[in-house]
Structure formats: structure tokens, C-alpha cells
Amino acid sequence: MQILTPHVYWAQRHGEIYLRVELSDQKLPQGTLTFGHGAKGENPYTFSLEFLEPVRPEISHKSTQRQVDIKIKKQEERWWDRLTLQEKKPLFLAPDFDRWLEESDAEMEIQTKEEEKLNKISVESRVRKDPYLGLKKGYLFMYNLVQFLGFSWIFVNMTVRLFILGQDSFYDTFHTTADMMYFCQMMAVLEVINPLLGLVRTGVFPALIQVAGRNVILFVIFGSLDDMQNKPVVFFVFYLWSTIEIFRYPFYMLACIGTDWPMLTWFRYNLWIPLYPLGVVAEAVAVIQSLPIFDETRLFSIPLPAGLGHSLSFSYTLQLYLVLMFLGLFINFRHLYKLRQRRYRLRKRKAH
């Protein structure tokens, strides 16, 4: 059987030599021979190189389906004028332009790596360890756990009643779940306080918009108007809220202990895309349905001087709130989209 020489491509750094041997479907080496598919089909292939200067005996290699990558460390870290001792380059040897760098570029690469290392050390030395970090993480973990349990109870309760009672469950949602929803939404005020205290990195304004918006719907629209409490819109608002939160809060719980569950992360950053706008639409429907009730009952009306009339209906305030609601939707949607994109870039960077 004829022994052939494969195509070999090379590049160097100050401390290493990189060889790429074009050989597919390689079999285990036998002595100095490697069997595989080269330019001339399946044959035994071998090659030898006498390097310009001494190299270390440790050689690392990695085989893929199409090639063998070899890394060799130089005995002395310096730039070589050529690879082989003989001035004439072997016919099977060529530069590996995928890895090729000129000496000045290689020196710049080393300098960049050293600067990055020094910057990392400098940043780490400046960052002081927080003695209360464990306490803060414990508090955030417990907060998210309590919220997760609360919204899970609401979600399960509503789902079971929906399967048992069907559409009849729409009309008594408020009376069966309101107490737990009151508790969860009052607890949610901490989501505005936490960034103010520096406990979390999220912005204060997006949290304030979401918490204030939901509490207006819950306490002002549903809580103060008996006629609204039996409407089906309550079911849709509560169900959309709880569906979003049963994925959001466990995601934050795992983040407190440095754990990432890919499926939960996917739900956290993708499920809100359809559910969040649907939730805002359901809230808007609730506001619109409450307008004639506020006009009729004059609840929360603003007294006016005698010359201007008796009072200004609260419904005008709610109409302004509707405009702000959709403005808040845009702000929060943009904020969540940026979080999603940032998370995607971090995962892509880690993958590489």
C-alpha cells in the first residue's frame, strides 16, 4: 500500500505552533502512520517536519471529521522566521490563513490579553465583598418564594374551578381569590422598594408602573365597585397575571442561588411576549366597563366650585389613565425586550 503525505497548514504565536492536517475519517495512529481519507482517497498518510528551533515534547491534538488540529509548544518563546530548519518549504506545507498573524499582530494580541487580565484583577480588587450578601439573597429568595406560592394558589384554584364549573367560574372569581390577590399585590410594593435600596439591579420606574397599574385595577376598579366583581373580565385579568408570575418568581428564586434552568429561562423571557399585552388589554376592558358605573355612583368624584358644576366624575381620571396604561405598556415592553436581548447575548457569549 502506498504511503502518502497529507496537506499540512501552519501558523505560530510567540509560544506555540499550530498545525492543521487535512485528513478526514482518521483511524488510530499506528507508529508514524495515520489512516484516513486525504486528497487521494483512503490511504495511510504520514509527514515529518524538522523545526527551526527546539520544541517541548508535550503535543496536544484534536481530531474532527475533516481534519486534525495539532498544538506544539516552543522551547523558547520567540518569533520564528520560518517553521522548518531547511530554508526551502516542503511542498505539502502551506500557511493556515485562518490562524495566521504577523509578528506585530501577535504581539498586540499578547498585549491585549495581558491588559484584559490586569483590568480583571483591578476590578476584582476594587469590588469589596458585601458582608450582608447572604442575608440579602436569603430575603430575596424568601420574597420570591412567597409570591410564587401565592400566585400558584390563585392559578391552580382558578384552573380547577374552570374545569369543574366551566364558564360559571367566571362570575365568582373575585370572591374566591381576591384575598390572596390582595396579599400578593400588597407584597409587590417591595418590588419598588428593593431597587431603591440597591437590593436588585432592575430599574425603579418599570417596577413602579407595573405595581401601581395592577393595584389601581385591583383596589380601585374591582375592590371598590361591587358591580365589577361579578364580571368575567376579573377572571381574565387574574388568570393572565398569575400565569405570568408562576414563571417569573421561580426564575428570580433560582437566580438568588446562582442556578439557571434553561426551560424556565425560556418561559420567563418568551411567555410574556403574548401574555403581557393581553393582560394590559384585559385591564383596559375592566377600566372601560367601570366608566359608566363611576359616572352613575359618583364614587371618587372631585368636588367643583358652584359655578362649574357639582363634581368632576372619576371616569375622566380613568380615561387619562387608559392613555398612560398603554404608554406604560410600551415602556415595560421595551424594558423586558432589552432584558431578553441582554440575556440572549450573555448565553451566546458563554456558548463561545
UniProtKB/TrEMBL annotation:
GO terms for molecular function: very-long-chain (3R)-3-hydroxyacyl-CoA dehydratase activity. Residues 3-84 form the CS domain. Signal peptide: none annotated. Keywords: Coiled coil, Endoplasmic reticulum, Fatty acid biosynthesis, Fatty acid metabolism, Lipid biosynthesis, Lipid metabolism, Lyase, Membrane, Transmembrane, Transmembrane helix. Pathway: Lipid metabolism; fatty acid biosynthesis. The keyword Transmembrane helix applies. PROSITE patterns: CS. InterPro entries: CS_dom, HSP20-like_chaperone, Tyr_Pase-like_PTPLA. It is found in: Endoplasmic reticulum membrane. Its EC number is 4.2.1.134. It comes from the Eukaryota. It catalyses: (3R)-hydroxyhexadecanoyl-CoA = (2E)-hexadecenoyl-CoA + H2O; a very-long-chain (3R)-3-hydroxyacyl-CoA = a very-long-chain (2E)-enoyl-CoA + H2O. Catalyzes the third of the four reactions of the long-chain fatty acids elongation cycle. This endoplasmic reticulum-bound enzymatic process, allows the addition of two carbons to the chain of long- and very long-chain fatty acids/VLCFAs per cycle. This enzyme catalyzes the dehydration of the 3-hydroxyacyl-CoA intermediate into trans-2,3-enoyl-CoA, within each cycle of fatty acid elongation. Thereby, it participates to the production of VLCFAs of different chain lengths that are involved in multiple biological processes as precursors of membrane lipids and lipid mediators. Belongs to the very long-chain fatty acids dehydratase HACD family. This is Very-long-chain (3R)-3-hydroxyacyl-CoA dehydratase.
